[in-house]
Design a protein that fits this description.
Blueprint (H helix, E strand, L loop, with lengths): L1 E4 L10 E4 L9 E11 L1 H8 L15 E9 L11 E5 L10 E5 L3 E3 L6 H21 L7 E4 L5 H12 L3 E5 L3 H10 L3 E3 L4 H9 L3 E6 L4 H8 L1 E9 L12 H5 L4 E4 L2 H27 L8 E4 L3 H9 L7 E4 L2
Parallel strand pairs: 8-9, 8-11, 9-10, 11-12, 12-13, 14-15
Antiparallel strand pairs: 1-2, 3-4, 3-6, 3-15, 4-5, 5-7
């Protein structure tokens, strides 16, 4: 097997490819011949040592995979062999590889209507959003939903989900290219970050019902101040690298709420492999039915992991990327 290895925290260009013997699954596990691995901003943070959870060195990045079951361990149904499945690795890292070992209860069959590349690209960003709308916040038809960072993977997934639930989406992104992609994905309008509070109010009237914020930084407070009465500000991450200090008085005024959406923590501490598998089943059913329409990802070879993660960390990437092994 071949896999990408991070031997020191730092620039993604230091990642290297190693070849070694293919492992065998233990009891309760399956061996996946990997077709595609999803790539995310979190992956770039982990490689650079900037994520809140640091895997011990050396490690293989990547959390999401789609591939074919090639072997099963003791206690696992042999009928899984040959099936195309998707999943999230246990712990952190391991998917940037030609083969992945994972627990059998954490995989889900991928419908024939969904390509391996699209499935892999959708897992991390869309599972965050599926978790968010099923466990943390409700989107009602007609809601005005503002999405910060709408040109990235998480932002585009929120745009798509909110559109599918009947919301009117105001996308916020830094470039014309990213704004165009957000509109293509389902946003009613896309704006930049200049005069953000006023622009949101112009587009929503009395203010936003929900803000989804994977960005942080100064934009977070501007968006919070643009919430309507009873509005909800959903914190997903801090892609800007700046964790904001949101003023509590603005939350108090007009009975606003700040809600954290941390799928990763839920996945590790509560949901576990079976919880992720259930979310994946929900996600793929929505995609196969046409309710969700993820944009096609940019496909790169596994050996290009360092280059792709560099683009993502420097915020030059648009949309989602996947690494393929063939």
């Amino acid at each position: 097997m071949r896999r990408i290895v991070c031997t020191e925290y730092g620039a993604p260009e230091t990642l290297r490819v190693v070849e070694e013997a293919t492992p065998h699954p233990s009891a309760g596990e399956v061996l996946i011949e990997n077709h595609a691995a999803g790539v995310s901003f979190v992956d770039s943070l982990i490689v650079q040592g900037g994520y809140q959870v640091k895997p011990p060195l050396p490690f293989t990045p990547g959390n999401c995979f789609v591939g074919t079951v090639s072997a099963v361990g003791e206690g696992v149904d042999d009928a899984l062999v040959g099936q195309r499945v998707a999943g999230v690795v246990a712990g952190i890292g391991g998917a940037y590889s030609t083969h992945v070992i994972t627990t059998a209860d954490g995989i889900t069959l991928v419908p024939a209507a969904v390509s391996s590349e699209l499935a892999a690209a959708s897992i991390e960003s869309y599972l965050t959003v599926v978790f968010g709308v099923t466990h943390r916040v409700s989107i009602a038809e007609g809601d005005d939903v503002v999405v910060l960072g709408a040109g990235g993977g998480i932002g585009l997934a929120v745009v798509d989900m909110a559109r599918s639930l009947g919301a009117r989406v105001v996308a916020v992104a830094s470039t014309e290219e990213k704004r165009a992609l957000a509109v293509q994905t389902g946003a009613a309008v896309a704006i930049g970050y200049e005069d953000l509070k006023d622009r949101i109010r112009e587009e929503t009237g009395d203010g936003a019902d929900i803000v989804f914020d994977p960005v942080g930084g100064p934009a977070a407070e501007s968006a919070l101040r643009a919430l309507a009465t009873g509005g909800r500000h959903c914190v997903i991450g801090f892609a800007s690298g700046d964790i904001p200090r949101l003023p509590a008085n603005i939350v108090l005024l007009r009975n606003r709420s700040v809600i954290g959406i941390d799928w990763g923590d839920w996945s590790r501490e509560e949901g576990g492999p079976a919880g992720n598998a259930a979310l994946l089943k929900d996600l793929f059913a929505r995609i196969a039915a046409g309710d969700l329409r993820p944009p096609e990802p940019t496909v790169a070879d596994l050996d290009d992991a360092g280059r792709i993660l560099t683009q993502i960390s420097e915020r030059r990437a648009v949309g989602k990327y996947v690494l393929t092994t063939s």
